[in-house]
Specification:
By secondary structure, the protein is an alpha/beta fold. It has 10 helices and 15 strands. The strands form 3 sheets. Strands 3, 4, 5, 6, 7, 14 and 15 form a 7-stranded mixed β-sheet that branches.
């Protein structure tokens, strides 16, 4: 079957089309005919050789954390009623960039009627995380919420969910095209963080007080600036790292300003919780209360181009591979 392999650690050019043996489902597993592979930013980092203490893949390997498709076959112990059903699934950090993938039956969710499979796939990774962040933040109507990397896959969901909760949303992104998207999604204020002094504009918008809740999907220096624009007694969630690692917070300053800080550990949900959040995400999408933004798609053979687009920071929303 067709697949993409990382032949060696390196740039996008190491993603090479190839033929690999078709996998077979074992006990408590299913075989999925993949229609869409969801690309997340960390896959580009792993491909480059980053994070080897956390991610144990060694070339050659087929990348891909998650897919959407139709169940083709089931292994021992799995209800045969799954065959033919549309699902989204976690592929255990590899194996998604291929025509077929084997996944644990415990790590897939049925796609409800009324929802396109591509939209469900685009929500697979970021939807449950965004909902989990919202539950922990417990946003109240009228609060100011700052979202960095707001035009990314999770950022667009946090903007929508915060707006629906009655917050006044400040969307921070790079470039007018992304800022216009954020306005359409309900952001009351948009700021371009490629421009100097952007954090000062956040303070001005909030009458000098700062944002009550900050969802930082950027990290690095951008996250540091966002922390400086967090209100006294506010909340700061450091869950993103594409701008240079997760934001490093001065704990003494956070205590002095009474800011509650959450890190990526707080969104590493146990499996039953993640399944609940995923099902809730899909239900919101069916009801028209949440929509993913699929900014770009690529055929499987162009996976290298997809990775290059992600690392260029020029993309909006989710990026999918089409099979």
């Amino acid at each position: 079957m067709r697949a993409i392999q990382v032949s060696r650690f390196g740039g996008p050019e190491v993603l090479e089309p190839c033929e690999v043996p078709e996998p077979k489902p074992g006990a408590d597993e299913v075989l999925i005919d993949v229609a869409f592979a969801d690309i997340i930013f960390v896959e580009t980092q792993i491909r480059s050789g980053w994070g080897r203490e956390f991610f144990k893949m060694e070339p050659p390997y087929v990348p891909g954390f998650g897919v959407g498709g139709t169940v083709r076959a089931v292994g021992q112990g799995v209800d045969p009623g799954w065959v033919g059903r549309r699902v989204i699934a976690n592929t255990e950090q590899h194996g998604g960039y291929a025509e077929r993938a084997v996944v644990s039956v415990r790590k897939m969710v049925a796609v409800p009627d009324g929802l396109e499979l591509r939209d469900a796939t685009a929500l697979r990774s970021d939807g449950p995380t965004a909902l989990g962040l919202m539950e922990k933040a417990a946003i109240r109507p009228g609060q100011w919420v700052l979202v960095t990397a707001a035009a990314g896959g999770m950022g667009v969901l946090l903007v929508q969910l915060s707006h629906a909760a009655g917050a006044r949303v400040i969307g921070a992104a790079r470039g007018e095209r992304k800022l216009e998207l954020l306005r359409q999604l309900g952001a009351a204020v948009v700021v371009d963080y490629s421009q100097p002094g952007w954090a000062q504009r956040v303070l001005e918008a909030t009458d000098g007080r700062g944002a009550d809740v900050v969802f930082d999907g950027a990290g690095g220096e951008l996250g540091q600036a966002a922390f400086g624009a967090t209100a006294q007694g506010g909340q700061f969630s450091a869950h993103g790292a594409p701008a240079g690692g997760f934001t490093q917070i001065d704990t003494a300053e956070a205590e002095r300003r009474h800011i509650a800080v959450r890190g990526i550990q707080q969104v590493q949900f146990p499996l039953p919780e993640r399944q609940r959040l995923t099902e809730q995400t899909l239900a919101l999408a069916v009801a028209g209360k949440l929509r993913p933004v699929i900014g770009q798609t690529f055929p499987l053979e162009k996976a290298g181009d997809a990775h290059a687009a992600l690392t260029s920071r020029g993309v909006t929303g989710r990026t999918l591979l089409l099979l």
